[in-house]
Amino acid sequence: MRLILCVLAFATTCCLPAQDFDISDLKLCNVLDSAKKCNKQSNIAQAEVWLKRALPMLKTNASKADWFTYRYTMATNLFNKHEIVKARAELDSALQIAFDLNDSTKLSKCYQSIANTYSVEANFREALKQYQKSLSYSSYDTESNYHATLMNMTHAYIGLNQHDKAIENLTKTKDYFLKTKNYRSLAVTENNIGEIYRENFKNYEKAKAHYLRAIAANNQVADKAGLAMNYHNLAIIFSYYNQMDSARYYAVLSKQLKEGIGDEGGLASSYHLLAGIYNDEGNPSKAEEYYLKALGICENRGIAKGVFYCHLDLGQLYFDSGELVKSTNHYKVAEKIAVKSGEFTTLSRVYSGLYSLNKKKGKVAIALTYLEKTKNIDDSIHSTLNNQHLDELRASYEVDMAEAENELLKEKEQSQSQALKDQEEKLYLSIGFILLLLAGGVWLISLLRQRNQAHKNEKASKELLAQKLEELLQSEEQLAQSNSLKDKILSVIGHDLRSPMVAIAGLIDTMSAVEVTREELSELLVHLKKGIDTSLVTLQEVLAWSRLQMNEEGLKMEDLNLPEMLDEVLDIYEPNLRAKRIDLKTEIDANLKLTADKNQVKSIVGNLLSNAIKFSPKDGNILISLKNENNHISFHIKDEGKGISETVLANLNSRDQIITVEGTDGEEGSGIGLRIVSDFVNAHKGNLYFKNNEQIGSTVTVSLPKPSAN
């Protein structure tokens, strides 16, 4: 979405070249006015010259108002150059000065411009907060700044899929700017309406009509930056129609305008657009040239999103031309940027490209990995969209509640006002009776007693209401805890069971669709077996843990023969030990017995042994020892792995997070193994200890009390 943000400037004089006359003949206000005028005319380079001239003049004897004008104008110049972080720093300084001056107009402008910086960074929720602050300092709906804020808010509304609010704002601003003949802002509004028709409604004819109206308005004020954006968008429309000559013509016009005003950051988007046009025309060498130009500008100016898309498109370009090494290099860079940003959409595009690339190179296992990642990302996108929808419903509900509360407050105020009037009338009557009759004093005393009784009744009602409110809050807290438990259980079942099943399905698809050798078949079957084992263990752990959490059944205490029970656990994990060639030894005191829940104790030992295998290197050693202490039985499991991180230990005390750590051989887990161990040990009133050994590995100790010690 290429919506234009309206950046307002103060009324200014003509923009004069700073080098054409002696600067000492001008006052500071003239220099700052010239800088603002150049910004308004999109003459970025000339505005920067004026600002450099103004700085030494400010240091001599400048007022706070002059410093505000300098900071705000500098921020506008940096914003036009796409240096967003620097622009926001200048705006923060300007905002503080505006507070010192107690100037609502300046405060409104600062908050609007700060919101613009968040909006171009796609932080739409924070942008809306800042826009609301800007509106709160706009006194009247007729102010130009008020309508400029409404127009800029549409960018944030569209980013949050609130298109009805975006269209409502644009309709208001279009009528206002047309009536006031503010052609510059009218052009921005027409362009933004065109973007909504193009991006959201796919109505390219209507989009083109609004772009042409924006061009007409920008021609009225000779706004080169606005015209460059309009031509850019028209080029996109013609590329959709596959009219490449027209698309290239308008793209070149946009590029030339940006070159003329020194908009180097904007040139990156022009080069990228031209590269796409040449690629669609079947001219890969020309497309490569312009992609590399765009990439160079984005890297120099730190435009991370631009760097990502240039590498992504270069990766696809080289993939299509069969240059797989170059394609791999660019896709890998794009993958690093996408992982760092954490944006689902960019991750999905990169993983999809890497899947196709590795499939073409014949690397079936790697391709399968990226296919699984793509499916998981798509699932996450679907979940995120659902959450956004819930957020929008919740926001709408909160607005409705706020309106309802406002109505109740109005009714309460009217009732109180009427009550005050009634009390005044009674007071006047009382004074009259006192002056006329001494007996009126008796009536006044009676009235006071009635008021005291009413106060007592009101106090008792408030106490009862407070009690009911406390009960309601307790019920709400219990409900929140129940919902939290449900969400954690469903999250584990929905993600940790589905992920192995997705991998299994992908493996079966690959085995069905691709001819594989006997060696590849063996490798795929190993993956298939690992996925099935993971799913079964996860299901067993989740069912056991959820029963404990929901108190469905208590402990089933029985006398256990610990050596026999340990043999049962070792039989289950013998394939895992053999797969990593781990040497397991046991040290068991004779005749060890314990009264406990057998299934839970087996789960405790099994989970701890599974973790020891998971984090042990191949050809490692594990020692299990069972000791008969004074009043308890202790289990010790010692491995030679990488130790237990502080993050995992801290997570045991968090009831809201479940994390996973990959094993030494890439093993995955459900993420609740240690939580299950901790909860089952607590259910037996036992203790759980973790200790990293001095040289290598860790030792986990479980201490369970004997019956006499309970």
A few lines on this structure:
The chain has 710 residues and is α+β, with helices and mostly antiparallel strands.
Structure description:
It contains 24 helices and seven strands. With 710 residues, the chain is of the alpha+beta class. Among the domains are: 1-162, Serine Threonine Protein Phosphatase 5, Tetratricopeptide repeat (Alpha Horseshoe), CATH 1.25.40; 554-709, Histidine kinase-like ATPase, C-terminal domain (Heat Shock Protein 90), CATH 3.30.565. The strands form two sheets. A five-stranded mixed β-sheet has the order 2-4-5-7-6, covered by helices on one side. The two termini are 66 Å apart. Mean pLDDT is 80; it is low at 7-23 and 385-410.
What topology emerges from the helices and strands here?
Elements: H1 28-40, H2 44-61, H3 64-80, H4 84-101, H5 104-120, H6 124-136, H7 144-159, H8 163-179, H9 183-199, H10 204-221, H11 224-240, H12 244-261, H13 264-280, H14 284-301, H15 304-320, H16 324-341, H17 344-360, H18 364-436, H19 440-513, H20 518-549, E1 557-561, H21 562-579, E2 583-588, E3 593-597, H22 598-614, E4 621-628, E5 632-638, H23 646-651, H24 673-683, E6 687-692, E7 698-705
Helix pairs in contact: 1-2, 1-3, 2-3, 3-4, 4-5, 5-6, 5-7, 6-7, 7-8, 7-9, 8-9, 9-10, 9-11, 10-11, 11-12, 12-13, 13-14, 14-15, 15-16, 15-17, 16-17, 17-18, 18-19, 19-20, 20-24, 21-22, 22-24
